[in-house]
Amino acid sequence: MAVVTIAMVPSASPEQSRAWCAQLEAGDILYFPKSPVPLSKDDASFLLGQQQTDSSLHKNIAYKPNIDRLSGFDAKAASPAAVERLRDAMRRYSQSVAAFLTEFLAPYQANWQLDYASFRPQEEQGRDLTLRRRNDLLHTDAFPTRPTHGSRILRFFSNVHPARTRDWVVSDPFAEMVRQFAPGRIAPDPGNALSRAGKAAARAVGLGAAIPSLKRSPYDDFMMRFHNFLKEDPQWQAHCPKYAFQFPPGSSWMVYTDTVPHAVLAGQYALEQTFLVRPQAMVRPEVSPLRILEEMARSRLA
Ligand code: SIN
Ligand code: FE
Question: What percent of the chain has pLDDT over 70?
Fold first, then answer.
């Protein structure tokens, strides 16, 4: 795994864009010392004035671009004007990242879905979260309530703290590490999804939306179990290869967090935009978790 520093963002040739996609898919982090999506002074000073009070309820504040809505903030403590202001700032961030990556990662363009953005106003060091929600333990990402059905989770982060670094540790990517564990200790289970008939029945009684796990594919089932498995393995947490990075104020970076184990140890005030990239857009499908797990299971998983 490597950190690829992109000091100046050139206007990319198709070959260069493909090379960046390939590096991301192989588990590299693309790092921009100077963010290509800088915040305006107004947005920065507004965001730095925000601090969530009830940290146990929601880890972060989410912005959902498809419905232009926020969730996860302390509604009782916020004035409607402040909520509106926060939504404006997050909408601008979300749109700027999408505009930048549409060109920068051109091969993905037609095959990604703009997912949620998040604002992370809390100090990460010493957060009091239950084990499976802790982000200071190395993990690969999987969404408990939003199965991706084989799409990859690509995240673009910005450290918007005016002075402090955001301190990460990462480990070797999925394709290099998964066989230590699978299929011996944890295995993809092609049968572990609701049958088509079961899904239809669940929809008929209105359960499909109420119980999101019903909509998980066997792929999502494995990725969710693997997230928990890594956090719950103290041996691996202690002894796996670790690479530390401190992302400075004003920088951005991007990584496939579904395959690069990562943890945040310290830092405050980050913005993040998630993209779900469809399997058919992969320029190196052989290192994608879907392909690796399907070969292991000798079966379709999504
Ligand atoms: C995570 O995705 O686990 C947290 C990363 C961060 O907030 O820096
Ligand atoms: Fe994560």
Answer: 90
User: What's this model's pTM, rounded to 2 decimal places?
Assistant: 0.92
CA of 163 from ligand 2 middle (Å) equals 23
Q: How far is the CA of 39 from the centre of ligand 1 (A)?
A: 20
Predicted local distance difference test score (pLDDT) of residue 84: 92
The total number of structural domains that make up the chain: 1
Question: Of 39, 104, 100, 95, nearest to 66 (Cα)?
Answer: 95
> pLDDT grade, residue 202 (50/70/90)?
low
Distance CA 247, CA 8 (A): 17
- Is any atom of ligand 1 closer than 6 Å to the C-beta of 122? no
Domain membership of residue 261 as a residue range:
3-297
143: closest CA among 220, 69, 232?
220
Judge whether residue 171 has pLDDT over 90. yes
Q: Classify residue 258 by burial, with Cβ atoms within 10 Å: 0-12, 13-18, 19+.
A: buried
Contacts 24+ apart (CB under 8 A), 80-86: 85/46, 86/46, 86/47, 86/50, 86/61, 86/119
- Report whether 38 contacts 12 (CB < 8 A): no
Return the CATH number at 251: 2.60.120
Within a domain: residue 302? Answer: no
Decide: 287 in ligand 1 pocket, CB within 6 A. Answer: no
pLDDT in tens, 52-72: 665 555 668 999 999 999 998
Query: Which tokens in the block code for residue 251?
Result: 């920088």
Structure tokens at 188: 């993809």
